[in-house]
Amino acid sequence: MTDHQTHTLPASLTVPRILAICNQKGGVGKTTTAVNLATALSAVGKRVMLVDLDPQGNASTGLGIKRSTILKSTYDVLFNEAPIREIVMETKVPRLHVAPSTIHLSGAEIELVTADRREYRLRDMLRVPLPYDYVILDCPPSLNLLTLNALVAADAIVVPLQCEFYALEGLAHLVKTIERVRKSFNPALYIHGVVLTMYDKRNRLSVMVEEDVRGFMGDKVYKAMIPRNVRVSEAPSFGLPAIVYDMGCPGAQAYIRLASEILKREKALLSAPAEQVA
Ligand SMILES: Nc1ncnc2c1ncn2[C@@H]1O[C@H](COP(=O)(O)OP(=O)(O)O)[C@@H](O)[C@H]1O
Ligand SMILES: [Mg+2]
């Protein structure tokens, strides 16, 4: 076991709320959102596990995990029956653990095809009593079986969306996919919200896309928008979430607002669960 391997988990066990950070497009801010949302939730006292489902492992390294120290990864959870508690590693952020991924996971797509309960493998490992309040799933940039596992495991989806030309087409496609997942595998799944990322209010395209997306998705679009901010893109190279690297920067502040908006929606949900639809 390495220093990173966790020994001291908070004792009380609950089935956690599971949020998948999902968008089939790459480079839209999924990993950045997963890392900073997870950090912001742990900063307000939640016990959080970030599950890295991207073979690139950017969420793991972005939280300061050195690849050489990873003994077991999400691959072992999916294929070797390793309980998630066995693979989690501590991060520099109190109450935030990460279930790391490695390049091993790149074979998962093919191995899943012939696996038993192939759509439910992650759900089976996560929907158990765990010492976490929230599980954040960082999804790969595609709609493959790995992503399907995340959507089947999740209670809800947070969609990072970059304000670019084909954003709305991509979103419509994702909404249809979620509809199909709900019908076949996970009837309770819904879109928690859409977060606009790398927003630039001086760019007309950003503003136009924002209007379109708010028109299409209404209140599902969070008020908090994440501005394009160089401090946010620098942070991972120091192995730190932007919120820790430079809490005062506009990107970090936006992620803190996003987390509080998400928690507000979570509270509202407790009083009216039937009203949530994708
Ligand atoms: N708000 C932001 N401001 C500036 N750069 C950002 C911001 N969000 C993400 N980035 C950068 O954009 C790139 C893609 O982001 P990432 O979170 O890895 O996307 P994805 O996980 O969807 O592929 C990364 O280099 C990241 O540092
Ligand atoms: Mg990513």
From TrEMBL:
It comes from the Bacteria. InterPro entries: AAA_dom (IPR025669), DNA_Partitioning_ATPase (IPR050678), P-loop_NTPase (IPR027417). Signal peptide: none annotated. Residues 17-190 form the AAA domain. It holds the Pfam family AAA_31. This is ParA family protein. It comes from Micavibrio aeruginosavorus. The lineage of its organism: Bacteria, Pseudomonadati, Bdellovibrionota, Bdellovibrionia, Bdellovibrionales.
